[in-house]
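User: I've been going back and forth on whether these two constructs are worth ordering. Before I decide, could you fold them both?

Assistant: Sure. I'll take them in the order you sent them. The first construct and its structure tokens:
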Amino acid sequence: MGRLTLADRTFNGLNGLLLSFFAFLCAYPLWYILILSLNEGRDASLGGIYWLPRAFTLDNFRVILSDDTIINALWITVARTAIGTIGSLLVTSMVAYALSRKELPGRKPLLLLFLFIMLFNGGLIPFYLQLMNLGLINSFWVYVVPGMFSIWNMFVMKTSFQNNIPESVVESAKLDGAGYTRIYFHIVLPFSVPLFAALGLFTAVGQWNDWFTGAFFVNDLSLQPLPTYLQRIMSTIEASNMISASQLANANSTSMYNPDAITSKSVRMATTVITILPILFVYPFVQRYFVKGVLIGSVKE
């Protein structure tokens, strides 16, 4: 490898500065939310906080962790994300594997049907009526069942199975007496770990951030996920919707936190941090699969 020219070094330097600037633009809003969540609300309302908390406190998080509704909403979100992601990957990959086999009867009409459904849908009202007929309205499974099959992910998986799983390996397994189920679990899944990691991350993020389903299809507050509850908090102006009078009275008696140092905004910032951090911690575990998994089903060799 030859030495870099002045033009190459200049380009690399400017490229690094530009990427660093965009990285800062992406990261700073998250940092700003974090420092506001760690600062006293009354003090933060005075402004002038940009890099570090000026009046450090954990009271905003104590408010959240003492609210049973938020804790329950967090567990609902964790459960729907785990079950929904695993179920979606399993069901979608099974359909994708079946459609990747050329010997499947009616394969081409089915692909055209799935493509049509992906481009056009019946709308919100028919979707609501269908959920009601299935008994999913105001149920935990409304978060899981409708999202167990993704047509877009199915097409990506199908292309990956066709292009990246050697047909000779499949034929050898058939000669050894393996059926389609055994081939799927012993060949298709191990070959597709990077793809599953990438699509699983996208699916998990979508499940974790979904507030729409809980807002429109679930009336029971005990079944609403954290994003829906957070949306309700952020849509209100008065702090009483988040910090009730009974909470404040309990705070004064138990001294868990200082009610004079918190505001609705500071509590919302802390709730946002709790919402964001868990899904951010998942990314490092799938990072090494991420780029490969994104590309593996998109290019035909």
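The second construct, handled the same way:
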Amino acid sequence: MARRVKAAGESAAAKTTGAAKPRASRSTTPTADSLAALSQARLIALILEEVGQSAAFKKRVTAALAALQGPDKVAGMIDRRLSALEKARGYIDWQKRRAFAADLDATLATILSDLKPLDAGMALDRLLRFLQGADATLERVDDSSGQVHAVYEAAAEAAGGLAASLSAEAALGFAARAVEGLDRDGFGLVGALLVDLLPKLPKAALEPLDARLVEALAALPAPTRKTTGAAAFAGAGQDWERRYHRLSLNRLRQVIADARGDADAFIAIEEEMSPERPDLAAVAERLLAAGRPEEALDWIRRKQKRGTAVVTREDLVAGGIDPQGPERAREAVEIRILDALGRKDEAQALRWSRFEQSLDAQALRDYLARLPDFEDEEALERAFDHAANRKDPHGGLYFLIRWPNLDRAARLVLARRDAWSGRIWELLAPAAEALEPDHPLAASVLYRALIDDILERGRSPAYGHGARHLTRLADLARELKPGDLTPDHGDYVARLRKAHGRKSGFWSQVEG
């Protein structure tokens, strides 16, 4: 009884003083709820501590305080930073890149988090100025990682979204101001922003902007006449910049033509830009969309010499170039045109031809989908036979693995045992992994080809992969019948040790 009274007294005292027992398990992850439990004094101390250690964070806090005094105060801070960026000439190496990128990101965050809520128009003007200074900044930064460029890409995306949310009149005014700075847009950030923005504007608003683009094109100086020596070298750079600027302006005019549904205007601009090599597929697509398939077919079938291959940023990121991409795109447009004209047999013949030439899986699927019932199975077998009987079996294996038809892939591997090149590891390694569960013999053939190539060429960076392949071979050997693979696994390893025993880097990883 005494204990109950004491407990009750303690509880009453706690209520009287306002004290409460701390929760036994409060989260230590910084969130809005967990930080709310800290006192104001503690939060201020933490902020001041970080302000003293991080220049970028100090700028964010300063901007937040400036926002309490109105948009002009924040805009003034941003303008001073942009002016400093525009005047800077020093080179920023990789060691300083991260801090510089953080500083740029702080400037962008100030525009979006502190100025935009107060005045969207002022924020958009600063975003445009920020982007127009990208060329000068990126040219003096070692940005091999793309870290600084990513900040500018984020700014362009934010500017496009903000401009699209404005009234048509305000968005048009922004677009007009952006066009004036395209001569300083060597990295294409502002141009890409406008390409995304213009189709979102009312069609009536596009006509005056198109007129402004025409005026800008007329004001450009004519290409310089060919010269020699130092003058030619200096003039070449300027001439290239003018050509790039002219191309950017004309591309925007084509975006406007598309937005207005004016195929003839698009074609006229294309012929003016590239009289010798117009983009036939682009022209044909516009004519097809305009309900003029006969004209579209005439364009898509015009002959022209092959020009310089265009490599996109996506190609570089992916680490490869697709040489058949342009032709595949052209044929895809031609097929759509033939379908629109009701010439189904010609469209089917073109789909099959595309598959035969490049083992294009999508072309085959499209072909099969349009066959009458019960004919598709026969056509599919014919396609598998064609893939397996190519002179170079690697393309056929790639197709069969990705289709997938692992049974036919395994048969191809075993039928061409001596044809596999371990140098094409990006195909053989995933193919071997795919074949392992149901086709251990075929997988073993590919793994041996990979290991042999790694050791014969002494590719030490790939020794780890080779060691793993050898481990997989040991596991797969238990599933093989005697005589399936010659030499057997034990003899194969013995041969490797005899031929490559001095490659200690490889054998240490095998033993490890």
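Notes on the second construct follow. The chain has 28 helices and no strands. Confidence is low (pLDDT under 50) at residues 1-22, 312-320.
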